[in-house]
Design brief:
The complex is a heterodimer. Chain A is an alpha/beta fold. Chain A folds into two domains: 1-33, no CATH class; 47-225, Rossmann fold (3-Layer(aba) Sandwich), CATH 3.40.50. Helix content of chain A is 30%, strand content 22%. In chain A, the strands form three sheets. In chain A, strands 1-12-7-4-2-3 form a six-stranded parallel β-sheet, with helices on both faces. A four-stranded mixed β-sheet of chain A has the order 8-5-6-9. Among the domains of chain B are: 43-298, NagB/RpiA/CoA transferase-like (Rossmann fold), CATH 3.40.50; 399-471, no CATH class. Chain B has helices spanning 8-16, 19-25, 28-41, 46-62, 64-77, 88-101, 113-118, 120-126, 136-144, 160-170, 183-200, 226-232, 250-264, 319-322, 325-330, 341-352, 354-357, 359-362, 369-373, 380-393, 399-412, 415-432, 446-449, 462-471, and strands at residues 81-85, 106-109, 130-133, 203-206, 210-212, 217-222, 236-242, 246-247, 272-276, 290-296, 438-439, 454-455. The longest helix of chain B has 18 residues, at 183-200. Classes of the chains: A alpha/beta, B alpha/beta. The interface between A and B is large, with 83 and 107 residues. Strand 9 of chain A pairs antiparallel with strand 9 (272-276) of chain B.
Chain lengths: 229, 472
């Protein structure tokens, strides 16, 4: 069995047998309560400043962001954004209860379709789980109401994020996931897929020169809904 | 991948006079070095993080057997399978078996250096399965039937003209006189081509930047999004990873991720950092039905407990080659196998043998820039020196080198004689070159004077000057 051969090879190199049980327990504790390493000072700031840092970093990474005070304004903002990019009013939307509860009727021209992503989609709207101020990164885990394909296939990805979901560092976003997400299969917190997305898709493979829109979305637009006091 | 490392000298000689390649290599400074320096300067904690990165990897390696088993247990729990492979042959066979069981005809691929190491593409083709590289750089290399020349920018050696010429040659259904106004037009053409392939593929193969024991996840880091499409759309996802990709927890991976993109492309964070854990869950609308991790040893466990163990800390950022004067002069293909630059000069001899790769650790000026930019502080020059020692011990270095070194050692052990002999030689050279100031050729120094003039020595020898200053 190669499994045994590999493990034996490792132990031979390390000049020891299998780890003693007490050491294994120590390492299991380290995994169950992961030690937190150094977190850069740039994100250890008051929440209002974290929101501002998040927005600055989003724009630095070629995303666009729009702050809204009222959830009822979102359909209008979506309609205007799509029109401003010359995109049709039909778009794929994550079947997330919070998105579905928005007053889409207020904009009868809009046609949100709650489903997974399709290869011909021009635009999508998804629900951001968390925003990470440190680098302007969105945490997008996969669940039945958050299909991964919506983050990848459309040309234009729109994301709704509440300001209360903005944290400073990646570690704090993992904390949220650990606290809030339950995976039925593993009895753990880790969903099948977690994407940390920082700006629209890009490549510098041609002459080390950055171009946007490689295989994923060419545009990333964030609607930031104020709900943090 | 075929091994051409023994031909390093011939390949390097040709590379030095290849104008296209030299033009491409000239982009290393603006393309990589300047960007990295800016990203590092913007994060005051970077140096402290390097030390943390080093410790995380050392801790993992010291407990690698334990963490691999924990990882494998969690992958199985999430509905995936781990295939333990001691050798490249076993790993190739495992990949083929999964593809055949899936009835695969086409397989899409994200960029993976392990795949290059294994030669997955050739193996699949031999068995009637079509692999399609989807990373923009890998896509053009597959068309051109070339290997990558860089571990994060595989087509680093190509210029825009090469891209245009290649695409015109193979995308023959498009108008031959179409104009590529911008680089993005070239990219858009590849994007359209590859969209169809993503949708038609039965299996998607990616690499892995990290494996996480805590959650049983494999992690990929990309900018294009091709890796994500590769692992999300087909029914089956295979992640290829070597055993040293292991880290214990999400926190550990996160700290290393703060180092990775900054060291590699000079970005604060790559666009897509994605954690995959098992197969599609109940009621999910997308994601693969099968998830396999092909876990390769391939010579890594042999490095543990040796002077090369530190090399297993490598997170494949490419900072060492981006800052290497030798890589910058001869390019990645000169190194003749999968891994070029300083990390390749250390790793390649461990994986394919020093008798084949002995030139690589010799192709270094020991300037030390590689070590100074390494995010996990791998002492690369020291390890190259170990390889030179090994080569000498095993009588693999050329006879002239050996006898010259032998003569030098004999002299150096006799200081009086050494000073007399060198003093005499310097005097003679000075006398001979008195008028010219430098030599265009010199007996026994043809290797030096073939490429540049040798200046005539000035002043006394080091020992003479030292004695003089002591007297003062």
């Amino acid at each position: 069995m190669s499994r045994e051969a590999i493990l034996e090879g490792i132990r031979r190199g390390l000049r020891r047998g299998p780890l003693p049980v007490d050491q294994q327990d120590m390492l299991r504790t380290r995994m169950a309560r992961p030690p937190r390493h150094l977190i850069p000072a740039r994100s250890r700031i008051p929440h209002a400043e974290q929101i501002a840092l998040f927005m600055r970093n989003l724009e630095k990474e070629f995303a666009t962001v729009q702050r809204l005070a009222d959830a009822n304004d979102i359909p209008g903002a979506v309609a205007e954004y799509l029109a401003s990019q010359n995109l049709p009013p039909a778009f794929a939307m994550a079947p997330h209860p919070e998105l579905q509860a928005l007053p889409w009727d207020s904009r009868p021209m809009l046609r949100p379709e709650a489903r997974r992503g399709a290869p011909t989609d021009q635009a999508s709207l998804t629900h951001g789980f968390a925003g990470i101020a440190e680098t302007g990164t969105l945490m997008l885990p996969s669940t039945p109401t958050r299909p991964t394909t919506l983050n990848l296939l459309p040309d234009t990805a729109m994301v709704l994020l509440r300001t209360s979901r903005i944290v400073g560092a990646y570690e704090e976003a993992w904390d949220l996931l650990r606290a809030e997400n339950q995976d039925g299969r593993t009895a753990g917190f880790m969903p099948r897929n977690v994407m940390l997305v920082t700006g629209p898709s890009r490549s510098a493979d041609i002459e080390q020169t950055l171009e946007l829109g490689a295989h994923g979305p060419r545009r990333l637009h964030v609607f930031l809904l104020d709900d943090a006091g | 991948m075929q091994i051409h490392s023994p031909e390093f000298k011939q390949r390097a000689t040709a590379a030095l006079v290849d104008p296209g390649l030299q033009k491409a290599l000239g982009r290393a400074k603006q393309g990589f070095q300047v960007k990295r320096a800016a990203a590092v300067a913007a994060l005051p904690e970077f140096e402290a993080l390097r030390e943390i990165g080093r410790e995380i990897k050392n801790h993992t390696l010291a407990n690698l057997d334990f963490y691999l088993e924990e990882f494998a247990g969690r992958v199985e729990k999430a509905g995936g399978h781990v295939h333990w492979c001691s050798t490249a042959d076993e790993a190739r066979a495992a990949v083929l078996k999964i593809c055949q069981a899936a009835g695969a005809r086409t397989v899409t691929k994200g960029k993976s250096m392990i795949s290059e190491e294994l030669g997955v593409n050739e193996h699949l083709e031999k068995h009637g399965i079509t692999p399609v590289e989807t990373d923009l750089g890998e896509y053009i290399l597959q068309i051109r039937d070339e290997g990558p020349s860089h571990i994060i920018a595989p087509a680093f050696h190509l210029n825009r003209e090469d891209w245009e010429e290649t695409f015109r040659r193979v995308h023959t259904d498009l108008p031959a006189d179409r104009v590529f106004h911008e680089r993005r037009d070239i990219m858009a053409e590849a994007r359209t081509r590859l969209r169809e392939k993503f949708l038609a593929a039965d299996v998607g193969i990616t690499g892995a930047n990290f494996l996480i024991a805590e959650t049983g996840s494999s992690v990929i880091v990309t900018n294009e999004g091709n890796g994500d499409l590769t692992q999300t759309l087909p029914r089956v996802h295979i992640a290829l990873a070597s055993i040293e990709k292991m880290v214990p927890t999400l926190e550990d991976a996160t700290s290393l991720l703060r180092l990775l993109a900054r060291s590699a492309t000079g970005q604060d964070f790559s666009v897509y950092t994605t954690f995959s854990t098992g197969t599609r869950r109940e009621a999910e609308l997308d994601g693969p039905q099968e998830y396999h991790v092909v876990l390769l040893d391939g010579g890594r466990s042999n490095m543990l407990g040796t002077e090369y163990q530190d090399m297993l800390r490598c997170i494949r950022c490419a900072a060492c080659m981006n800052h290497c004067p030798v890589y910058g002069a001869v390019g990645g293909h000169s190194y003749g196998w999968v891994y070029p630059g300083p990390m390749g000069a250390v790793l390649t001899p461990t994986l394919i043998g020093v008798e084949k790769a002995g030139h690589l650790p010799n192709a270094s000026t020991f300037c030390g820039r590689c070590e100074s930019v390494c995010p996990v502080k791998i002492p690369l020059p020291k390890m190259m020196r170990h390889w030179r020692d090994r080569e000498f011990e095993r009588h693999l270095s050329p006879a002239t080198t050996r006898s010259a070194l032998g003569l030098w050692a004999w002299l150096a052990q006799r200081p009086e004689l050494y000073r007399a002999a060198t003093g005499l030689a310097m005097g003679a050279i000075r006398l001979m070159g008195r008028k010219r100031g430098s030599f265009k050729s010199l007996p026994l120094a043809g290797g030096w004077t073939a490429g540049r003039d040798l200046p005539v020595p000035q002043g006394g020898s080091f020992m003479a000057q030292y004695a003089k200053s002591k007297r003062r």
